[in-house]
Amino acid sequence: MGIRMFLLIAFMWVLIGCNAQNDSREHNDKLKSQSIVTIKEAAIKGQMKGMEVPLKSTYSKVVEVYGEPKEISNEECWTYSHDHPKTKANFYFNHDSCANGLNVLKPEAIVNKISVPVESLDIQMTAEDVKLALGKPNKEFWDEAYDGYYLIYELDQSQLVFLAKEKTDPINISRVQVITNKLKE
């Protein structure tokens, strides 16, 4: 009788532990989903979650809030500032560096894209997490030329982009971007 009772108690203990783990996992999944929805809600307003400077701000406002960047670079005719002392975000501007001087920004240049590493959002997420929280994206693809996997959600005034830089299973999102939708301005 003692061994049977011990086995029954051990079995129930394992069962309770498994249920607690499942409950904890479900709770964490709900929190992750809510965080992703919050990112989308901010993007609808032209903002990146946790950032003080929204899209359509000026370069001088970015510098005022986040400090002088260590560097201004260019990427396919997009000029962007990065390595600001108070943020890990990259701010892209309406300045066309292919037409004008490279890596030069005027104070009145307008932010049209904000890109942040996923760590700055205090969340780790996969492409599947994003799709579970937000539904099917408007566009989803691997871009070999730019070496990345993209989930793009079209919003009213902007796009919300989730980017993975590495082919992994599951696909781990590494950056999140909000971009002004120029076609609807």
Automatic annotation (TrEMBL):
Signal peptide: 1-20
Keywords: Signal
Protein name per the record: Lipoprotein SmpA/OmlA domain-containing protein
Native species: Paenibacillus elgii
